[in-house]
């Protein structure tokens, strides 16, 4: 008797043959394919200018704000055609993005920044207090610095606040654009470990674009590599970590799979 394998679950996010341009002439994407399964951490890798940020902006339907457009293909989040869904509605449906560069309100305290993440979903005071506690449990540094102005806090605290604010919207798919950028290796490790914990304990799905492929390949389940605006490879990170050609071909660096402690490898990851 043969056992039928369980049917594959419907992807939470599907990017199918997407092409995109800026200002109707600058072709940024010309063939992106990617799926994020429920409960998956999926890394989007690629060198400078490969199209990672453009892909993520397309996922949140944010390209029109930059005079960009998806010109072909389709992006579907949880059954909804992203191109026909306003960015704010995508957030309400659980697709929440932390843009590149942290984007905190500098003149607000860290806690006030977090509270702005709860505004869009008409939450009660009690729910907001509960969500704040949850974020503080994930990033205790934010609790300790809650009254510090974001503009006076460290880069790591600002990144944690930006992620915490996104978590206040109760995402099902958290999209992160280069969370490691400009941060010290230990802070990068702290942030990725908390993201991994959230994924494990709550099933939060995560799509994370990273130039820091060493870190991303360590924490993600699968990865898709972009090259010059097209996806050229998708695989399990366990497999990709074994392929010594991957990083030298696509990122111009040697492959060093990080140890579970990730210390030395992270130190070489350009954070
Ligand atoms: P990086 O890590 O440097 O942000 P990336 O992989 O995120 O790189 P994108 O920022 O998506 O790459 O850029 C893809 C291409 O689109 C590049 O050629 C870039 O110059 C171009 N591009 C990005 N944003 C714009 C814009 N607002 N207007 C015009 N062209 C843009």
Notes on the protein architecture:
This protein starts with 12 loop residues before the first strand and ends with a helix. Helix 3 runs parallel beside helix 6 (155-168). It is built from eleven helices and ten strands. The chain has a six-stranded mixed beta sheet, with helices on both faces. A four-stranded antiparallel beta sheet has the order 2-1-4-5, covered by helices on one side. It is α/β, with parallel strands linked by helices. The longest helix is centred in the last third of the chain and has 18 residues, at 185-202. It folds into two domains: 9-94 and 172-182 and 204-271, P-loop containing nucleotide triphosphate hydrolases (Rossmann fold, 3-Layer(aba) Sandwich), CATH 3.40.50.300; 98-170, no CATH class. It has helices spanning 52-59, 87-92, 110-116, 125-138, 140-144, 155-168, 185-202, 213-219, 237-242, 244-251, 263-267, and strands at 13-22, 26-36, 41-45, 68-77, 80-81, 95-98, 173-177, 205-210, 222-227, 230-236. A hairpin with a 3-residue loop joins strand 1 (13-22) and strand 2 (26-36). Residues 254-271 have low confidence and may be disordered. The site of adenosine-5'-triphosphate has 13 residues, from strand 2 and helix 1.
Q: Encode the helix/strand succession as letters.
A: EEEHEEHEHHHHEHEHEEHHH
Helix fraction, binned, reads 25-40%
- What class would the helix/strand composition place it in? alpha/beta
Provide the number of structural domains: 2
Number of helices: 11
* Low-pLDDT residue spans: 254-271
Ligands (ions, cofactors included):
adenosine-5'-triphosphate
Largest sheet: 6 strands, mixed
Quote the beta fraction.
15-25%
N-to-C terminal Cα separation, in Å? 53 Å
CATH architecture descriptor name of the largest domain: 3-Layer(aba) Sandwich
CATH topology label of the largest domain:
Rossmann fold
Order of neighbouring strands in the sheet with most strands = 6-7-8-3-9-10
What shape does the CA trace take?
Answer: globular
């Amino acid at each position: 008797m043969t056992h039928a394998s369980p049917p594959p679950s419907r992807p939470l996010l599907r990017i199918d043959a997407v092409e995109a341009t800026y200002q109707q002439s600058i072709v940024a994407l010309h063939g992106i394919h990617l799926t994020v399964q429920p409960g998956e951490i999926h890394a989007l890798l690629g060198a400078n200018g490969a199209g990672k940020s453009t892909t993520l902006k397309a996922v949140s339907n944010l390209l029109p704000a930059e005079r960009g457009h998806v010109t072909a293909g389709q992006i579907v989040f949880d059954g909804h055609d992203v191109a026909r869904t306003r960015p704010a509605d995508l957030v309400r449906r659980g697709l929440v993005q932390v843009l590149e560069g942290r984007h905190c309100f500098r003149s607000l305290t860290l806690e006030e920044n977090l509270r702005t993440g709860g505004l869009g979903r008409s939450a009660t005071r009690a729910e907001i207090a509960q969500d704040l506690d949850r974020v503080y449990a994930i990033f205790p540094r934010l609790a300790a610095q809650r009254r510090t102005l974001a503009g006076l806090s460290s880069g790591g605290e600002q990144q944690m606040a930006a992620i915490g604010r996104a978590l206040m919207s109760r995402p099902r798919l958290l999209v992160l654009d280069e969370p490691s950028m400009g941060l010290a290796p230990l802070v990068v490790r702290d942030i990725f470990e908390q993201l991994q914990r959230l994924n494990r304990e709550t099933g939060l799905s995560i799509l994370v674009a990273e130039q820091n492929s060493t870190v991303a390949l360590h924490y993600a389940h699968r990865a898709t590599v972009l090259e010059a605006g097209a996806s050229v490879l998708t695989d399990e990170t366990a497999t990709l970590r074994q392929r010594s050609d991957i990083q030298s071909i696509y990122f111009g660096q040697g492959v060093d799979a990080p140890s579970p402690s990730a210390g030395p490898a992270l130190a070489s990851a350009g954070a």
